[in-house]
Amino acid sequence: MDYQFPEGFLWGGASSGPQSEGGSTEGDRVMSEWDYWFSKEPERFYRQVGPSVTSDFYHKYPEYIEKMKAAGVKSYRTSIQWSRVIRDCDGTVNEDGIQFYNQVIDELIRNGIEPMMCLHHFDLPLYWVEKGGFENRETAYAFARFAAVCFGRFGDRVKYWTTFNEPVIIPETGYLYQRHYPAVCDAGKAAAVGYHVQLASSLAVAEFRKSGCDGKIGIIINLTPTYCENPEKAEDRRAAEILDLIFNRSFLDPSVKGEYPVELKELLEAEGILPEVSEGDREMIRENTVDYLGVNYYHPRRAKARTTVYEGPLMPEKYYEPYEFEGQKMNTSRGWEIYEPAIYDIAMNLKENYGNIPWYISENGMGIQDEEQFMGADGMVEDDYRIEFIKEHLTYLHKAIEEGCNCFGYHLWSPFDCWSWTNAYKNRYGLLRVDIYDGCKITMKKSAHWFRKLSENNGF
Ligand code: BG6
User: Fold this and answer.
1) How many domains does the chain have?
2) How far is the centre of ligand 1, averaged over its atoms, from the C-alpha of 98 (Å)?
3) Ligand 1 geometric centre to CA of 420 (Å)
4) Does the predicted model carry a pTM greater than 0.95?
5) Which protein residues touch ligand 1 with a CB less than 6 Å away?
6) ipTM score here?
7) Among residues 116, 170, 232, 387, which is most buried (max CB within 10 A)?
8) CATH number, domain at 453?
């Protein structure tokens, strides 16, 4: 074995409630922002495939769990949909939703798969969207009440909790780049939303501490290490630093260290968009840091100082330009750079600057368009590119672990093909293929067999 991982290392898979469950009107579930957006603007979604069925996990979860087990998945990270568990702004609990998640958690445990539950994966119930979503501070308190219900109902069996998945995506794509609802471009609102999301996460951590649950609570952050074109040039370094502050440290620092970077405050102040802080917020954030981190890693960022004046509406763009270079590896289906050494850089950053906090890879994966072109005569997808992608990333993770980083698991996005926001089923990520035009028939890809060996051998 060239790359042996520490004993007990969690080889798992990650998905989310809204991207896998479907059954969007069943069990008295109420509308979420995605159901609503699809009903209003279906043309925004790839081939107009919306979130109502997705991978039909709602009905087929026993089969999914059985097949994930066959693929060597030892832990499954998904999310509990707020819109399935809480019916309204008053916090009325939906017992059907509770029963569904109880069944899923029990079935995972029966199959020897560790359930890891996240409480928010880009999905807000419509009743809070109508009240302004995270623009409204009240939503943060409502989130903490929802979290408390989940700790109370599932905390006896779920030992790994996370508050938010990729919290920065909420302001980034909803309030700057217009890829998620409400698709506006307003840097002031983005800053306020980001702040309220952090507050919501800290309030939920506080609820967790009160609940007496014996598990651990964390947050999942998508880290995009930012490299500058010429490290010798102070302006290039500054451009990368600004992106790092906005996209990485805006959640990493308050979640792990309990405070925002001074440089971020100065930046937002200079822009005139520093969010309003209420009495007690600082203490709430300082006293409720996380036990561990989930790290989603897909791609780095590349920055150099602007060579032209930017007059558009996007705040970060004022400060930088992206750069490309010869030999840059791309996942052309997704348009993301593939840069494996960044995993090592992330690990060293967490070790050196964040107290070597325990963390795991909560997402990493390879989305491929028209994957059926790689199907062999026997109907199996021969996804060698995915196996290579995983191996190459694991090589750098292994090196970081050898050098003392505190990583306890690797979760592939995703154990099975699942729906993706406006991209719907354009890019397939799974170890298991899901045929959405054939009743969500589930078959193993070549990578599922390989992943099973990886997990059994605890290395490759
Ligand atoms: C992550 C998200 O950023 O990337 C997932 O947490 C998402 O929800 C995944 O599906 C892959 O991105 P995409 O857009 O190709 O589905």
Assistant:
1) 1
2) 26
3) 6
4) yes
5) 16, 19, 165-166, 222, 296, 334, 363, 367, 413, 420-421, 423, 427
6) 0.98
7) 116
8) 3.20.20.80
